[in-house]
């Protein structure tokens, strides 16, 4: 009886080791990546669910936001830079789930701000609050456009990383 349990334990240990080896070979995005966090403006609370952040470096605006983002780069389908009067803007396109979340939050929070945090560069070393656009209407098409607080070079790096992240997460979800 004891010999069967030893054999079973050996087989179990081998199976666990094989599973561990297989799980270590995870797919990684090709090229640089970026991260995006979209937060919603919130009332200050004493429960610690919100925090105040400073957005825009040149003329800082204080916005009280929820600590948990409502959307991230996981919800992205694509991102691109578009020409805008006086410079450029970033156009973010969300997946079906992200579109639904964006629509629900913008419909319920007209008159408040979204706060967008981005990270990019080697090992996501560059990161800051990029924008705090005012919600003026329900956004039903899943596309969020904003003028970021960043240089065109930083924006190019950020968009390349977001595109790589979107490709990675879209491949993973299939």
Q: Radius of gyration in whole Å, from Cα?
A: 21 Å
Q: Give the second-level CATH assignment, the architecture.
A: 2-Layer Sandwich
Q: What percent of the residues sit in helical stretches (DSSP H or I)?
A: 25-40%
Whole-Å distance between the termini? Answer: 46 Å
Structural category is alpha+beta
Across the major sheet, the strand order is 4-1-7-8
Give a nutshell description of this structure.
This protein is an alpha+beta fold and 174 residues long. It has one domain (35-172): Gyrase A, domain 2, CATH 3.30.1360.
For the structure shown, list the relevant keywords:
174 residues, alpha+beta, Gyrase A, domain 2, four-stranded antiparallel sheet, three-stranded antiparallel sheet, 32% helix, 31% strand
Structure commentary:
With about 170 residues, this protein is an alpha+beta fold. About 30% of the residues lie in helices and about 30% in strands. The protein has a single domain (about 35-170), classed as 2-Layer Sandwich (Gyrase A, domain 2), CATH 3.30.1360.200. A four-stranded antiparallel β-sheet has the order 4-1-7-8. A three-stranded antiparallel β-sheet has the order 5-6-9. The mean pLDDT is about 85.
């Amino acid at each position: 009886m004891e010999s069967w349990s030893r054999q079973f334990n050996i087989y179990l240990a081998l199976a666990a080791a094989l599973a561990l080896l297989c799980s270590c070979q995870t797919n990684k995005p090709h090229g640089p990546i970026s991260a995006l966090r979209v937060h919603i403006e919130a009332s200050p609370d004493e429960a610690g669910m919100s925090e105040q952040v400073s957005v825009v470096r040149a003329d800082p605006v204080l916005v009280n936001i929820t600590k948990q983002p409502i959307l991230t780069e996981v919800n992205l389908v694509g991102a691109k830079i578009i020409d805008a009067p006086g410079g450029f803007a970033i156009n973010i396109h969300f997946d079906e789930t992200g579109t639904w979340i964006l629509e629900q939050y913008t419909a319920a929070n007209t008159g408040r701000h979204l706060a967008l945090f981005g990270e990019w560069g080697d090992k996501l070393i560059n990161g800051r609050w990029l924008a705090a656009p005012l919600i003026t209407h329900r956004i039903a098409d899943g596309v969020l456009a904003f003028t970021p607080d960043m240089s065109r070079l930083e924006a190019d790096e950020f968009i390349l990383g977001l595109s790589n992240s979107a490709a990675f997460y879209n491949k993973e979800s299939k």
